[in-house]
Amino acid sequence: MSEAGMELKRTPLYDYYQRKGIKLSDFGSWALPIHYTSIIEEHKTVREKVGLFDVSHMGEIEVSGDRATSWLNRLITNDLTTIDKNQAIYTIVPNESGGILDDIIIFKYDDTRYLLTPNASNTQKILDWITQYQEEGITITDRSQEIGLIAVQGPYAKEVVAKVFGEEVKDIPNYAFITADAHPTYTNALISRTGYTGEDGYEVYVQRDQTEELWEAFMEAGEAYGIQPCGLGARDTLRLEAGMPLYGQDLSEDVTPLEAGLRFAVKWDKDEPFIGQEALEKQKETGVDYLSRGFELVDKGIAREGYPVVNADGEEIGQVTSGTRSPSLNKSIGFMRVQKESVSLGDTVWIQVRKKTLAAKITKKNWLKQIKKEG
């Protein structure tokens, strides 16, 4: 039960967790493990070997129809015409004012059929949002309750996934996928070369009632490579080192893609303008007031979400949106949303951490490059 007394949502692995005696926590109204052993151990396993994540709380919405491409293109910032069959694309779903309703990945089966993967907390919101724009000939189907999702991440991910699905998975390019049509067990599986850790890896969408069997198959296949189940705590530290934003902290409806550093996912010259494009074009012309920046603490401590950021005069200029101690670099890092005119790369700012004011250096979010270089 959650603190509010509400029944937590369960992934297909819930019974598995109960049998194994794995501690579950309330993660956005879902019962999920934050860690199995320790966050640091699981984090390092993914960086050095291979880790397994239950991410079945993510949403899956299928969109189909003869005009699916042009219809969807008006609801997202990126451009579906730039990818081919069996490719995927990262994009923003904006509101009318350009704010971020969600950041999602869209998988393209072909020009008439797509799979959208909203964040768990946003699944219903995105379903409601796109449904209000539904047109004749467009079919929208929520598959979230039918599908389990397992992420296999780390340097040995391809060996583990290949043991279960065959050598062809090693040839899947980044942000592309195949479907396991000929597999004797997981015939409806979608295997994508995607992830949220910064490491090479795969995300495998499978029928809900096959999720536990697939989890066990991956665990057996990865035994020789030191595979370890990993919780959402390590997933968070891994994505932060990789400079990847988290919805609900770094991204929200009050933040635009231009403020969030996601301009690469905005295409301005599509055949038809997308919802919110006019607002974003105005912001592009006038400039943004706030930007998302990386930081590293100079002083000892950890700066968490919501901590105020001040300048040398003690004036508040922003706040921390994500923060942790990097297990790979052994220093405190994070993202902050700050006034654009107040800081530049290399500047020192101060973060109010409880009763202390800690110095921090403004940096790029390229910690993973440092990690790989040092490794």
TrEMBL record:
<feature type="domain" description="Aminomethyltransferase C-terminal">
    <location>
        <begin position="294"/>
        <end position="366"/>
    </location>
</feature>
<feature type="domain" description="GCVT N-terminal">
    <location>
        <begin position="13"/>
        <end position="270"/>
    </location>
</feature>
<dbReference type="Pfam" id="PF08669">
    <property type="entry name" value="GCV_T_C"/>
</dbReference>
<dbReference type="InterPro" id="IPR006222">
    <property type="entry name" value="GCVT_N"/>
</dbReference>
<dbReference type="InterPro" id="IPR029043">
    <property type="entry name" value="GcvT/YgfZ_C"/>
</dbReference>
<dbReference type="InterPro" id="IPR006223">
    <property type="entry name" value="GcvT"/>
</dbReference>
<comment type="subunit">
    <text>The glycine cleavage system is composed of four proteins: P, T, L and H.</text>
</comment>
<dbReference type="Pfam" id="PF01571">
    <property type="entry name" value="GCV_T"/>
</dbReference>
<keyword id="KW-0032">Aminotransferase</keyword>
<dbReference type="InterPro" id="IPR013977">
    <property type="entry name" value="GcvT_C"/>
</dbReference>
<dbReference type="InterPro" id="IPR022903">
    <property type="entry name" value="GcvT_bac"/>
</dbReference>
<keyword id="KW-0808">Transferase</keyword>
<comment type="function">
    <text>The glycine cleavage system catalyzes the degradation of glycine.</text>
</comment>
<dbReference type="InterPro" id="IPR027266">
    <property type="entry name" value="TrmE/GcvT-like"/>
</dbReference>
<dbReference type="InterPro" id="IPR028896">
    <property type="entry name" value="GcvT/YgfZ/DmdA"/>
</dbReference>
<protein>
    <recommendedName>
        <fullName>Aminomethyltransferase</fullName>
        <ecNumber>2.1.2.10</ecNumber>
    </recommendedName>
</protein>
<comment type="similarity">
    <text>Belongs to the GcvT family.</text>
</comment>
